[in-house]
Specification:
The protein is α+β, with helices and mostly antiparallel strands. It has three helices and seven strands. The termini are far apart.
Length: 152
Amino acid sequence: MTITIDRVDWADEAGTELRRAQRAELDARYGSDDHEPGTPPSEADIAVFLVARDEAGTALGCGGLRLLGEQLAEIKRMFVAPRARGTGVAVAVLRALEAEAGSLGVVELLLETGTAQPDAMRFYEREGYAPIPAFGPYVDEPQSRCYARRLD
């Protein structure tokens, strides 16, 4: 499968649809819609948002970066549609986010996932992200699992 990854506006229709699908999946996994500590990402605080598409232009995955300082950013709304899981889309989106972060001068990426997402935890660990203590709004959140990776 050939995957293209484009930088898009937060309001991009395909990105919005992927984020909606992610929220529905997470609501089902956690049994409620109250599972995100902190401020939800928005157009105002996402520096980069990417959408991955197949050869036909079908949106398959997405991810964004929230800057936390001059050299630090958080991965937000990383998601791959179920039909595209296991095809390399997640790795492609993650590597594109890392490249975008590097171009912004970011040297370390952080992320948060949760206990009901063991597949995400395995993925990030496999891709070189190490577990870290909870940071920011995730401190004292029992369902949160945080990770980091230096880009240099």
